Amino acid sequence: MPLEIVRNDITRMKCDVIVNAANESLGGGGGVDGAIHRAAGPGLHEECMKLGGCRPGEARATGGYALLCRYLIHTVGPRYRDGAHGEREILASCYRNSLRLTVELGCESVAFPLISAGIFGYPKDQAMQVAVDEISGFLSEHELQVYLVVYETDAV
Q1: 125 is catalytic
Q2: % of the chain surpassing 90 pLDDT
Q3: What is the mean pLDDT of residues 35-49?
Q4: At what angle do helices 42-49 and 31-40 cross, to 10 degrees?
């Protein structure tokens, strides 16, 4: 199955999994994280607080609540400093771990935002390259429909 890059609001995507670019507390925040928490409703915050947080590069699953998905996968991307502090590997781990968890959950479709390219400051062109590389590599071995959802045209 393919990788599609689409311009949309990720909270309106209808698929099995939506990936949330979360912060380490999983308590909601700004950008994509805040939008997903607002759209999902208060039950999401309650479930996230029971997970005990998430370290950069890791992924955790919750229910989808009021969103058009079965599950949310929360992953914490790197805060971009200068590209010389392991940012690329952490970002790549976000995609790998989220994709692996999507398959473990028995799902067939997943929508990703461009992780770390907003308030975490990762340069959009570099973030896009990491996303495409990791997703393409995963799809060479797995059957999955993957959407890379961008909100702004300058991300593409």
Answers
A1: no
A2: 95
A3: 97
A4: 110
For residue 83, what pLDDT band results from cuts at 50, 70 and 90? very high
Pick left, alpha or beta for residue 86 (phi over 0 → left; psi -120 to 50 → alpha; otherwise beta).
left
For the chain, give the mean pLDDT: 95
Which residue in the list 33, 82, 125, 133 is annotated as catalytic?
A: 33
Tell me the C-alpha to C-alpha distance, in Å, between residue 118 and each of 77, 138, 148, 151, 152: 10, 24, 14, 10, 10
What backbone phi and psi angles, to 5 degrees, belong to 63? -70, 165
Contacts of residue 124, defined as CB under 8 A and 6 or more positions apart, other chains included, come to: 114, 117, 154, 155
Average pLDDT (71-82) is 98
The DSSP annotation for 84-150 comes to -SSHHHHHHHHHHHHHHHHHHTT-SEEEE--TTSSTT---HHHHHHHHHHHHHHHHTTS--EEEEEE
pLDDT at 156: 46
